[in-house]
Amino acid sequence: MDLSKRKFKEDFKKMLTEVYSMDISESESTEQFFTLGNLLRSYSSKNWSRTNQQYIEKQKKQAYYFSMEFLLGRMLKSNLLNLGILDTVRNGLQDFGIDLEQLITIEPDPGLGNGGLGRLAACFIDSMATSEIPAHGNGIRFKYGLFKQKFVNGYQVELPENWLQNGNVWETRKMHAAVTVRFYGKVWLEQNAAGVLEPHYSDTQDVLAVPYDSAVIGYDNSTVNTLRLWSAEIPPKDDITDYWSYIHQRNQIESISEVLYPDDSNYEGRLLRLKQEYFFVSAGIQSILRHYKKMHLHMNHLAEKVAIHINDTHPALCVPELMRLLLDEEHMDWDHAWNVTVNVMSYTNHTIMSEALEKWPIDMIRSLLPRIDQIICEIDRRFTMKMSTLFESALVERTRIVEGGNVKMAHLAIIGSHSVNGVAQLHTTILKEKVLHDFFLIYPSKFNNKTNGIAQRRWLMLANEPLRDLIQRKIGNEWETTPTELNMLKAFRDDKDTLHELAQIKQLNKERFAEYIKQTMNLEINTDAIFDVQIKRLHAYKRQLLNLLHILSLYFKIKDDPQADIQPRVFIFGAKAAPSYTYAKQIIKLINSVADLINQDRELENKLKIVFVENYGVSLAEKIIPAADVSEQISLASKEASGTSNMKLMLNGAITLATLDGANVEIRDRVGDQNIMIFGLRENEVYQYYRDGSYHSRNYYERNPVLHRILDALIDGTIPGAEAEGHSIFDSLVQYGDEYFVLRDFDSYAAVQERIDHLYRDTLKWQRMALINIAGAGIFSSDYTVQQYASQIWDVSSKVHPL
Ligand SMILES: *Cc1c(COP(=O)(O)O)cnc(C)c1O
């Protein structure tokens, strides 16, 4: 938008007076932040209503991205950037003596997601608005986001994250758009006068779903889409007979949108979770149909105007819920309703980990959602009947929805969708050949790949302004909207000046991060060291342990020979563990104990440090990633569906140290073997081990003296404070089979780490690799990802043509 500094300053002063009756000298950061937030809302409001109007007037097909999680991060700077007024506002505020960088810290970081899946949803809505795709987010307005993590004696402690405490400046409560969601009760079918079966309900518990909308502002365009998050409330009543039972009931209802489940890649079959899933699904679909009806089209044409995307199985109840509304409210017959439903729905699979595959006891669904239960059983009945005529009965049994007393949510999503996609090429191949092979036989054409992506705006333009400036000086700014233009940087791969500038920027970012660590953790780190970064949820399959075992090997190397020629390293970890995931919490404690041991050792000063930041989340990621030299992407091959921190780090010039897993494979294809550090088992080798059962981790302990010593350190008192954890982790690796092949991959990992140690000494060579990574990161922009969803899955329009 056009905005002069003078106009901004006027607007800012006026808004501060209007909202707070203050002038600038009296105001504090909080008032200034809310004033600026309100001002941005007013700047984008016209485009927001105009975008909506246009969607209606042109009867545009719209897509709705249903996701349990949207891990947005702070929005102030992102909104300023997308409106094109970041510098104007920064300068204007400066005139008032207000520092924008300080102001942004007032905004809480809304942690409405666990990790990659939620962050993907956030990058997607930004990219959809930027690509002018008529698509919106639909989710839950959790009162408490993901817990706040603290370390006490090295142990993770969880505290509530009350992000709404001071209000959320970006949202608008839309009372007129509230809908009712029904739980429990009895349902039966009765013929009406016209002879049609109609459902009747009694004794239901009704919940009022109230939407809170936030503007999703496109970058450098006039599109403003909507993120709609639902809040659960007790419906208004005018006859409260028992006050205390009313309060009790209110609390019970409000608990539905109270907290995000803190599990990542793990399934917990809890009733409240099922309520949450149905709550936002039902509210979202009811609101979509209400909107559709304004166009006065027959429900048979719904799929021409509406696409609904199911992000992982959490919103899989979209399938029976749309069926319910079409059958019961719109009086369609089953076959037409089913046809419409399948054409509307599409589904993304995010994991092959069996512990993450949702299955709900059918009894639980029957009691909580009696009508949905009937519909699911009917879908299942028709599916098995039809498929029994086409396929062997064993295959039908394996693919049916209701089996062994459980409803398999992935099966429901696949059967009820016209498209099923994986999130990286390798992942999609594994789905087709292994995990979902049965379904691939039934529905080969449903399967497709959409490799994940990241928004280059947040992860480069905002997080790393010095790098953005350098890129702009070298190749202009077309890459901002056509990210593959970053390729042009390759022309500078042998330009010493550019490579030196890159090195300087990395150094600057490392110093900034070091200063932050000094302030927040009172820890000094050597900025000449390699900053070796592993930031992601703590999960056994991601193998933070492999990283830690290698750190211990360096520790012993230096202790044995203080003169050992080792490049100094700072190992940076950021990771939350699910509160109920005992093993992951033990690993956190062990890392913290090793950190204490190493960081306090004078002999290791400036050679080895471990920084385990507390409360890893989007805001911390934005600080760490620009400072990273090495990106640890070391999951056991086949286990990480895609990964996205790998893309963010690459875009910021870190060198990827990786197994051939998830999108690492595509990163390797992009930059070439010389510019990435690959190690470890391949996916087919892992499956071979599974087939022949020939992995015996104890042999590695017994036959590899380096490993032997490191593993003994876990149990012989070398690491003070983590005796119990050390024993338990030792046992998992040596006694209980080492499920994720940590010991098997150790030598290969250590060898490639040693190569990094040598490569890093040659700054130009290192920066040349960094530059090739930055230049190659363009295709991993989520702009391209959503453009492919738009054209290949949703069939909705978009501005830019896909790759
Ligand atoms: C990108 C991101 C993730 C995903 O990281 P992976 O390493 O791909 O699992 C998780 N959390 C946050 C805060 C992120 O920004």
Task: Describe what this molecule looks like in 3D.
The protein is α/β, with parallel strands linked by helices. The chain folds into 2 domains: 59-74 and 109-452 and 786-794, 3-Layer(aba) Sandwich (Rossmann fold); 467-681 and 745-780, Rossmann fold (3-Layer(aba) Sandwich). The strands form 5 sheets. Strands 1, 2, 5, 6, 9, 10, 11, 12, 16 and 17 form a 10-stranded mixed sheet that branches. Strands 20-19-18-21-22-23 form a 6-stranded parallel sheet, with helices on both faces. The radius of gyration is 27 Å and the shape is globular. The mean pLDDT is 97. The site of pyridoxal-5'-phosphate has 11 residues, from helix 6, helix 23 and helix 24.
Keywords:
803 residues; Rossmann fold; 15% strand; 48% helix; alpha/beta; glycosyltransferase; 2 domains; globular; binds pyridoxal-5'-phosphate; Glycg_phsphrylas; six-stranded parallel beta sheet; ten-stranded mixed beta sheet; 23 strands
